[in-house]
Amino acid sequence: MEEVLEKPVTCTGRLAPSPTGALHLGNVRTFMIAYLRARSQGGRLLMRMEDLDHPRDKPGAAREAIEDLRWLGFEWDGEIVFQSGRRELYRDAIGKLREKGLAYPCTCSRKDVESAQSAPHEGEQLRYPGTCRGKHETFPPGACWRFRVDGDSRVAFDDAFAGRFEQDVGETLGDFPLARDEGGAGYTLAVVVDDAEMGVTEVVRADDLLPATPAQILVQRALGLPTPGYFHVPLVVGPDGRRLAKRHGDTRISSYRARGARPERIIGYLAESFAWAEKGEEIRLADLVERFSSATIPHEPLVADFDVF
Ligand code: GLU
Ligand code: ZN
Questions:
Q1: Are residues 224 and 90 in the same domain?
Q2: 155 pairs with which residues across the strands?
Q3: pLDDT higher than threshold 80 for residue 270
Q4: Where does ligand 1 bind, in terms of residues with CB under 6 Å?
Q5: Spatial CB neighbours of 74, under 8 Å, sequence gap ≥ 6
Q6: Which atom of ligand 1 lies nearest, measured to the CA of 195?
Q7: Buried b (16+ CB within 10 A) or exposed e, 26-36
């Protein structure tokens, strides 16, 4: 008798919101691409809440983001993964790096350490020259963990949307932070550990994180983990050309919703920006799976008109 083989899963994507604020149009536009890249290939889509950034995480924001996403028509496979429940995995990873001499405690000023706790959207990472390399035998109070960027630190990869990207991590970031305290985990470490553990094969996110990617690749290599595919897409910006923020007014999904906007209208507006829908069209996210094409995603940021709903 012939064996019935299950259709192989070609692609595993993920949505990875941070509950540091409410979900807004910019997040949703990126998530639409992540969703459609996975679903149009019959792939899996996972959901991970990146809730490691106390005290910037806002109470209730994780639950609200999930409600907003469901209201917009997003669905995903399996349980939601909360990073706050996975500290042991991150600790193990630091232990492995430590054994290889690739993680060390640093007691330098906390400023750049703090700023690296979250995804560095505004290019806020500073170059650290390695002052504390080989200095601390044990973990001093108040120290952070840093990654030792040794040898040839040039990283090059082909982003499936943004194209070739190259960076010398040693020259740009130096020994970047892994965690801001002994048992903690910062953005870079957590993202690397989780994407590998969850079996993510493609990372879709906004292109302000493109310069944060080479450091992640170095950590993947150091831990013997695979490098996923990357697909970095342009941001939504305000009329002033800057990354969507409070100064541009209220673009929170929850506010549009409270004002009676329809999810199909919001999805339609964003779909139109990718040429997947006609002007003014209302459409459900699931109905875009058939229309999806990466080829029409513009390479420039979307200057959004926020009062259309
Ligand atoms: N949670 C991060 C953010 O919202 C995104 C991380 C990622 O996609 O790698 O900025
Ligand atoms: Zn130091």
A1: yes
A2: 167
A3: yes
A4: 16-18, 50, 119, 121, 191, 205, 209
A5: 15, 31, 35, 285
A6: 9
A7: bbbbbbbbbbb
Residue 43 predicted with pLDDT over 90: yes
What are the residues whose beta carbons fall under 8 Å from the beta carbon of 187, sequence distance 6 or more?
A: 50, 52, 53, 116, 117, 118, 119, 120, 212
Tell me which H or E stretch contains 67.
helix 61-72
Domain boundary among 233, 252, 279: 233
**Domain check: are 80 and 136 in the same one?**
no
Kind plus residue range of the DSSP H or E element containing 87: helix 87-99
Q: Return the axis-axis angle of helices 187-197 and 87-99, rounded to nearest 10°.
A: 100
Q: How far is the CA of 49 from the centre of ligand 1 (A)?
A: 9
**72-124 pLDDT tens trace:** 999 999 999 999 999 999 999 999 999 999 999 999 976 655 555 667 775 55
* Strand ranges inside the chain, DSSP E: 12-15, 44-49, 81-82, 103-106, 144-147, 154-159, 163-168, 177-179, 202-206, 229-233, 236-237, 302-303
Among all bound ligands, the one having the nearest atom to the CA of 146 is 2
List CB-based neighbours of ion ligand 2 within 5 Å. Answer: 106, 108, 131-132
For residue 3, is pLDDT > 80? no
Q: Tell me the torsion sign for CA atoms 248, 306, 66, 260.
A: positive
* Alpha carbon nearest to ligand 1 atom 9, residue: 191
Atom 5 of ligand 1 has which residue's CA nearest to it? 16
Closest-approaching ligand to the CA atom of 136:
2
Among residues 173, 205, 233, the one where a domain terminates is 233
**Per-residue pLDDT tens for 125-153?**
678 889 999 999 999 999 999 999 999 99
CATH number, domain of 25, equals: 3.40.50.620
**pLDDT tens per residue across span 50-74:** 999 888 888 899 999 999 999 999 9
Cα of 276 from ligand 2 centre, angstroms: 50
Atom of ligand 1 nearest to the CA of 20: 4
